[in-house]
Amino acid sequence: MASGNIVQYSFLQSVLDASSHARQQCLHLVDLAERSALPASQTLPDTTKDQLSHLQRQLNADLGSLRESSREAIFEVRGTKQSTAEARQEIDRLHLQLQNLYYEERHLRGEISACESYDHPYQQLPLIPVEEFLELQPEHTNDDEKQLMFARIGHELAEREALEQQRQGLLKRKHGLIAHNKRRKDDLASLDKDLETFIDVHISFLASYRWCFTDKI
Predict the structure, then answer these.
(1) Burial of 15 by CB count in 10 Å (0-12 exposed, 13-18 middle, 19+ buried)?
(2) Is it the case that residue 157 has pLDDT exceeding 70?
(3) Is residue 25 a contact partner of residue 58, using CB atoms and an 8 Å limit?
(4) What are phi and psi of 125, to 5 degrees?
(5) Cα end-to-end span (Å), the chain
(6) C-alpha distances in Å from residue 150, one per residue of 27, 90, 115, 125, 131
(7) What is the CB neighbour count within 10 angstroms for residue 69?
(8) How far, CA to CA in Å, does 115 sit from each of 57, 122, 205?
(9) What's the confidence (pLDDT) of residue 96?
């Protein structure tokens, strides 16, 4: 696989290209040296020496440039690793926040479900049927479920308050009748006592009268 298909960063690609060029120069220099090899007793021609010296100087310059580029590439890679680590930390932080939001969402959905399924006390109130209520108060026909429930509870409260007032009135009347009956009872008891006293006096009078009448005879 070609390096260009792997490395996408232009600077690193230039370093790889320089490395490849230096390699080709090395191979060319080695090939030229091998082709120009002579016995130890003979010396190379000046043209060959000049060509080899030129190639060596050019290779040294390319190697120096390659080393500089390699150092820059190392620094670039370190910076990229640092940036990647910081980006990974940010991603981990955002992922943790997302997980917390998912947890909070599940918790809130559970609370909502619990509230919706909760058996509220007002649902146990003995309210009149909706149809009967709407017949009594047709102005609530277009109310939503919440408004209709408030109206029904208000109607039930008003009815119970009215019944409570009636109960209090009847209770007051009951107490009045009880007090009246007690007075009548006391009056009757007093009348019985007076009647008994009258009878006793009358009997005593009759007894005295009979005694006097008998003495005269």
Answers:
(1) buried
(2) yes
(3) yes
(4) -65, 140
(5) 170
(6) 95, 50, 18, 12, 15
(7) 19
(8) 85, 14, 91
(9) 95
Under the banding of pLDDT at 50, 70 and 90, the label for residue 11 is low
Structure token pair of residue 216: 């005269």
State the Cα–Cα distance between residues 104 and 111, nearest whole angstrom: 10
- pLDDT for residue 171: 92
Backbone φ and ψ for 2, nearest 5 degrees, come out as: -70, 150
> Identity (one letter) of the amino acid at 111?
E
pLDDT of residue 44 exceeding 50, the answer is: yes
Tell me the percentage of the chain whose pLDDT exceeds 90. 21
**Per-residue tokens: 105:** 């969402």
Place of tokens 């109310």: 143
Residue with tokens 């006293």: 197
Q: What is the pLDDT of residue 162?
A: 92
Q: How far apart are CA 20 and CA 16, in angstroms?
A: 6
**How crowded is residue 111: how many other Cβ atoms within 10 Å of its Cβ?**
10
Tell me the C-alpha distance between 105 and 109, whole Å.
6
- Helices (DSSP H) in 118-144: which residue ranges? 130-136
